[in-house]
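Recall from the previous chapter that SMILES is a line notation for molecules. Here it describes coenzyme A.
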Amino acid sequence: MINFYGTPTLETDRLILRRLVIEDVQSFFTNWMSDERVTDNLIKGAHKSISESVERVTNIVNEYEDQEFCYWGIELKATGDLIGAIDFYHFDLTTENCEVGFTLGYEWWNQGYGTEALKAVMEFGFRHMNIHKIAAAHNIDNPASGKIMQKVGMKQEGLIRHMIRNAKNQYKDCAVYGIFQEEYLV
Ligand SMILES: CC(C)(COP(=O)(O)OP(=O)(O)OC[C@H]1O[C@@H](n2cnc3c(N)ncnc32)[C@H](O)[C@@H]1OP(=O)(O)O)[C@@H](O)C(=O)NCCC(=O)NCCS
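With both inputs in hand, we obtain:
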């Protein structure tokens, strides 16, 4: 059985993973959600105005009432900046599997933060939540995302053609990855 604890604060060497609060809206919008370099790799497009981010962050904050909601803001300890977000979603209570998604602001790419955040939620997901399998997918134009999946021990399981259609109406082929709890905990 999956143990749901909501979204507790997790800490790594350089990061604090924590719940978003409504005061995070400006950082959420400025640091990644309005930036096409970041959102090009996601299904939903960039936010054009801060009101879209107000609505999204308000929804996230309200969803924390649900114990099954796992959505962390990624805060950089050194500066206090909110630099991205990472979440578990699509929990399947029959298989006890879920998926993980992550986003970092462009300014903070390629400094190991994505890997560090993914490791932290995987540790929490497998050791404390008792998730059976964590899966993820990235479009093949976005190799950095696949790289961090590999770096935390996820294995590529296949490639799905036209798995997503992004906000620019482009179909993308995606590589799918996964890792089992028993593989992680060896
Ligand atoms: C995917 C993402 C979270 C990665 O975060 P990050 O903090 O930059 O990742 P890390 O620094 O931990 O690792 C990135 C790795 O990708 C590698 N990389 C970067 N660009 C690459 C490229 N074009 N081709 C191959 N490898 C690449 C880096 O060299 C690094 O590997 P290394 O440590 O072995 O050198 C970040 O790029 C991002 O937010 N992208 C936009 C949103 C997104 O794509 N989300 C995932 C959707 S599936």
